[in-house]
Specification:
Elements lengths: L6 H25 L10 H9 L2 H14 L5 E5 L7 H14 L6 E6 L4 H8 L4 E5 L16 H6 L4 E4 L2 H5 L5 H13 L3 E6 L3 H5 L3 H12 L12 E4 L13 H18 L2 H6 L1 E5 L7 H5 L6 E4 L6 H8 L18 H14 L10 H23 L3 E2 L2 E2 L2 H19 L1
Parallel strand pairs: 1-2, 1-8, 2-3, 3-4, 4-5, 5-6, 6-7, 7-8
Antiparallel strand pairs: 9-10
Helix pairs in contact: 1-15, 1-16, 1-17, 4-5, 4-14, 10-11, 15-16, 16-17
Length: 410
């Protein structure tokens, strides 16, 4: 472990890490497609993809499988930001960044900001939603917000059944169902959130829990009304924790949700309803999530409060995880992690080594994960451009093993 109190060790570790990362990037540049920097624009990604026929074919298959459903990326600001001025700044930045988004975009903002943000978003491709609503139109319900009130200030969507409303505020399945029905009756589009707890996940009950929540939440909703309903699968254990559900597991749950919709409605509804994934979605995880055939979008929490991160998520590039590089990972992903590691380590103060010891640890961890990706991909003979990994890639694997050993010594 690198300690903030050991500047000599930090300095030597910094030099070794930078040297190792630079060499590894050089190897990856030689044997993988054109680099995609973290935060790259959709246009540059498409240009990079155009240079790889195999990658173009893979992405065409992904698009063809889901072309009937428009993608839907939504940001949930929760109880953020702290005041109206910050809300205006964030909304303005998101609206500007959303111009290149390939699908539908919405932001769910705190109630005091709905009118202001909706006015800013007017005429853009960003829609605004409320984070909660009550089922009555008016009356002695202190603190309640009605569906009509939300719609009157520019909201087009509303979150229903978010896990934080269920756990913290005690929202029952009956209330959630009433909210869905009331939202639809008032012309709002409900985004029904479902998902299992950690205990339920570990017990293998995730699909059963989701089916039960859907059955109760959509009780009384007609087939015709389902065109205005979006479902968000959010494993509770992944919300705000930094943990992301494995993409294959997420796909399985999404597929089971679609199958259940076919049972309670029909195949037409099942094939048309959009199902988002939510739970610590980041710029690093979005591409593989959106490469899954039954994942139609993302409900984004913390990352939606950073316009640059949310821009990258909105402008996702679907990737199916089939090893398009000789390192077995997402094209550009290895280089992205290496550059991130180098940037983190560079933040160390050359004179004392005490300025950012935590950042150094982050750099080491990023470099370790990137090296692990390179090592595993190379040793298993990942493919690039339709051909086996070259012999020198095996040498890169040995180099990665040395990096991991060096990190272990520290």
């Amino acid at each position: 472990v690198i300690s903030c109190k050991e500047p000599e060790m930090v300095a030597s570790s910094k030099s070794a890490l930078l040297l190792g990362a630079a060499a590894a990037i050089g190897l990856s540049e030689a044997f993988s497609p054109a680099p995609m920097a973290l935060g790259h624009s959709r246009a540059s990604s498409i240009a990079a993809a155009a240079s790889s026929p195999a990658l173009r074919a893979e992405r065409s298959g992904i698009v063809a499988a889901t072309m009937a459903r428009e993608s839907f990326v939504a940001g949930n600001w929760k109880c953020n930001p702290v005041d109206i001025n910050e809300a205006k700044s964030l909304a303005t930045a998101v609206i500007a960044e959303a111009k290149t988004a390939p699908g539908q975009v919405a932001i769910f903002v705190p109630h005091p900001f709905v009118k202001t943000v909706a006015d800013l978003a007017e005429g853009s491709n960003v829609e605004v939603g409320g984070q909660n609503m009550f089922v009555e139109d008016s009356g002695a319900y202190t603190g309640a917000i009605s569906a009509h009130m939300l719609k009157s200030v520019g909201a087009k969507h509303v979150l229903v059944g978010h896990s934080e409303r269920r756990a913290t505020f005690g929202a029952s399945e009956e209330l959630i169902n009433s909210q869905v029905l009331k939202a639809l009756a008032e012309g709002l589009k409900p985004l029904l959130c479902i998902g299992e707890t950690k205990e339920e996940y570990e017990s293998g009950l995730n699909t059963k829990v989701c089916a039960l929540q859907i059955a109760k939440g959509l009780k009384g909703v007609t087939k015709e009304q389902m065109k205005d309903v979006t479902i968000a699968y959010e494993p509770v254990w992944a919300i705000g924790t930094g943990l992301v559900c494995d993409t294959s597991v997420a796909q399985d749950v999404h597929a089971s949700i679609r199958s259940f919709l076919a049972e309670i409605y029909d195949n037409e509804v099942a094939d048309s309803v959009r199902i988002q994934y939510g739970g610590s979605v980041t710029p690093e995880s979005v591409d593989e999530l959106m490469g899954k055939p039954d994942i139609d979008g993302c409900l984004v929490g913390g990352a939606s409060l950073d316009a640059s991160k949310f821009q990258r998520i909105m402008n996702y590039e679907p990737f199916d995880g089939k090893g398009a590089t000789p390192f077995g990972g997402k094209p550009g992903g290895f280089r992205e992690m290496m550059w991130k590691a180098m940037s983190n380590v560079e933040e160390l103060d050359d004179r004392s080594g005490q300025r950012s010891g935590a950042t150094a640890l982050q750099g080491v961890d990023t470099l370790r994960r990137a090296s692990s990706q390179l090592l595993c991909g190379a040793l298993t003979g990942g493919r690039a451009r339709g051909r086996p990994a070259p012999p020198l890639c095996r040498l890169a694997a040995l180099f990665s093993a040395m990096l991991l050993f060096f990190e272990w010594l520290l």
